[in-house]
Amino acid sequence: MTASKGHESAVALAVDPVGAVDAGLGHLLREGHRALARSLQAQIATHGVSMGQWFFLRALWDEDGLTQRELSQRVGMMEPTTVTAINSMEHRGFVRRMRNPHDRRKVNIFLTPKGRALKDVLLPCAVEVARIAVQGVQPPDLVKAAQVLRQMLGNLEGQMATTLGTAAGHDEID
Amino acid sequence: MTASKGHESAVALAVDPVGAVDAGLGHLLREGHRALARSLQAQIATHGVSMGQWFFLRALWDEDGLTQRELSQRVGMMEPTTVTAINSMEHRGFVRRMRNPHDRRKVNIFLTPKGRALKDVLLPCAVEVARIAVQGVQPPDLVKAAQVLRQMLGNLEGQMATTLGTAAGHDEID
DNA sequence: ATACAGCCATTAGGCTTCTAAGTATTATTC
DNA sequence: GAATAATACTTAGAAGCCTAATGGCTGTAT
Lengths: 174, 174
Hints:
Two copies of one chain form a homodimer. The first copy, chain A, is mainly α. Chain A has one domain (about 15-160): Winged helix-like DNA-binding domain superfamily/Winged helix DNA-binding domain (Arc Repressor Mutant, subunit A). Chain A has helices spanning about 10-15, 15-45, 50-60, 70-75, 80-90, 115-135, 140-165, and strands at about 95-100, 105-110. Chain A has a two-stranded antiparallel ribbon. The first copy, chain A, is globular. Chain A binds a DNA duplex through helix 5.
């Protein structure tokens, strides 16, 4: 309906913001995310760490000894994903599983010295990638961009919540 | 460390842009992308189309009859990924493979009427998702955000290119 | 104390993407 | 025109993420 054709152009953004997000910002978000992930991956892979492990290590550097469920929530991934990641990290000697003695359902994850030591190596990698990424961008613009993204994130999460609350498969969009 | 703790706040961005990108913009980019993808996925899944197919359909609506390699380049994915996607789309009757008579190495992909018809159903879904995503965002801010993302994308791609040219595994970042 | 319900971790299986290796066709070179 | 190189698609196998179903432990109510 409101979509005015499919021709993409930088100009279109100023002319038709809504259509352009679909054609432009969405694409940009996707590509930007992939580029950032690829760059970081290239850096940390040098030290034997995969992206799948990176997020969990970050969470543990901040809060060691989390349970797997807590870890999942911090990182924003489902629990089976966490299990897989922990498995590989345990296998590589970055973390140790410890059954919680007070509640034997829980498993707390603790960094090994090796896992903790990675922080001083990996964090600078991330900072370096970030530095490169934002070269030539004015800090105020960076703030603006972050605000926009935060707003969009909120909008979409709100939408998902309400959609799930009502019927999950209707489409009276027209 | 430059990163001022793990507590995230909008303020930190203004104070320490570089560290904040790592902790903030990177995370935001990742979450934003995932939220957008999830929302769109929920919409188009209603019509039997997966995200894996969506990108290729978009490219074909714009340019029907592309070869698989061209399609891969348009969409930004590797060729084996394209093969898989085309397989499933062909199986569902959205596209048809046609060996190119002039160069029998090539395979041109053509939309079926069914695949072409999806455009009128799916594009509005994307527009709707985009509309929801940018609610409450001022168009100028949207433009700024897109510019920032574009700049970052360029920075990262440039970096990847030069890194590949030089040595691929040193880390004197400190 | 026993049964029922809820919480936590795991397993099973699918989807999407990637890299690396293989096959078929066309172009180039001697 | 036969050997070699380049091009286009395909197959094989791995990583990361997801949903759904399973198994163990805990807490509560009968």
